[in-house]
Each structure stands twice: as C-alpha cells, then as structure tokens.
Amino acid sequence: MDGPEMAPQDYVMSPSAACGPVGVVGLGLMGTAIVERLLEQGFPVVVWNRTRSKAGPLLERGAGWSDNPLAECRRVVVSLYTTEVVEAMLDGFLEGHRQCAVLIDTTTGQPGRTAALGRRLAEQGIQYLDAPISGSSQQLRDGEATVMVGGDAAAFASCADLWPVLGRNLFHVGPCGSAARMKLISNLVLGLNRLALAEGLAFAEALAVPPSAALEIMAGSNAYSRAMDVKGRKMVERDYSVQARLSQHLKDVHLILAEAAEIGLELPLTRTHQRLLERAEAAGLGDLDNSAVLEVLRQPALPANP
User: CA-CA to 65 of 20 to 30 Å: which in 55, 149, 206, 270?
Assistant: First the structure.
C-alpha cells in the first residue's frame, strides 16, 4: 500500500443521472442503510436480495427491484456476509452483465480471495473495488462511517459521487485486496476497544461504581476511545438493539486469526476476544448488538480449581 494513496480523498457529492440507477445487492443492516442513504441523497436505486420480502420497506420509499442489477446498472454496491457469498451471488448474475460495470463490494472478506475475485471479474470486463466500511449501520446512516477502497484508480474516481454516501472519511489504499486487509486491521483494534470498554464497565459494576458515572469519567480521561461514544450508552443501559451483530464480528475475528496464522503471527488479545465472543454466541447473544459482549463479562468468575 503506497503512502500517498493512504491519505483521505477529496470528493464532491453530486448524483450523476448519466450513470443511471445504482444497484444494491444484499439488504442486511448495512445494505439497507446504504439504500436509505442513496435515496436520501437523490440517487435512483434498484435492489436485489435473496429474500425479496426484505425489500418491501425500501420499495415503498422509492427503490426499484431488479432481478439482475449487474445487467441493469453501471454501478452496483454489494453488502453480503462473506466473500464466498459474494462469489455465489455473482455466479447467478454474470450472464448478461453490463460491460465496464463497476462493482463496489463493502463485504468484510478474506483478502486473498478478494484479490482473486478482482482478477477474475477484470477478465469479464467488470471493474471490482473492495470497499469495506468501518462503522455500524447507524453510523453509516448518520454519514459518520469510514470507507477503505482497494482497486483501479480510474474505477475509484468514477464513483466519486457515491463515496460521500457511504462515509465521511475515505481512503484509497492500493490495489484490489488492500482494503480487505486494512479492514481486518481496523476491526481488530475496534473490537478490542469495545471489549476493553465492556470489561471496564463490568469492573465498575462489580466495585459498586455506577457504570454511567464510570463511562462519563472514562470519556473525559486518557482512557477515552470512540467505542465509548458508539457503544457506551448501549452497554450502560443494556440496550442491545442491533447496529452491528455480535456474530458478525466473531466472523471477522475468525478471519483476522486465519490471516495471522498464515504468516505465523500470534495475536493473544484477539484470541481472548474470540473465546469471549464464542461464549456470548453460545449463550444466545449472537444476533444481538456486539455491545452485548458485556454480558459474558458481567458474570461472576468461576471458582479456581482446588
């Protein structure tokens, strides 16, 4: 990743009717937020989701349905669970696709597989940008997310009007696959910040310090992290309504550890994080917000072996 390319990019928000509708594939938390942002900014949008019923509220708000966005749209945003799911989706869409279409993949995926997918799509006339988003679905709705993009510079520039929809901060980090690597790095630190906050609040509660008071003081001290702004109040109020699912972050932690294992790097803090997230998932918290990791830290410690 070249240094100069890592700098935040300047862009102008100006929907381009000449490019036609923007396609969005995948209507989970992030995909839905992306469609809402596009509609709010005046972009024509068509959507596809494996379960069509999930598109209902978006269709009512002005989105259209497409059986194959790659055949209808010059630019398509993909928001799916894994790179494997993206590959399976594309197998059904590549026939009849538009030449020189630009595919913006916001999925947090495996870097090597992402780069290979970019090469495969280039052979078929599709410009592929891996563009994972750092931030929750609510942060995306609020225009506060960060977007990391890997891929061809010309394809990146052709989407200048779309980047402000996806986030406030934008980084073009190098060739295809570079953004997938950077997203895993970012998620490692983000997840540990959130875990440290949860453990601190559990510790405060155990010491009979009101968690709300502890949060306020930590936020005004050198202990501060942005996790406090995004997840602090949710943890204090034990409000686990979903902005980003706990099981989704566990999937990302598995990807992080797999990448580290390939290069022989041990990540002891992330390994501990994995175990705690797996405990949370086993306790039925996987579909709740990732701030629910607090619950496994609130539990009394098991007695030591005699």
Answer: 149
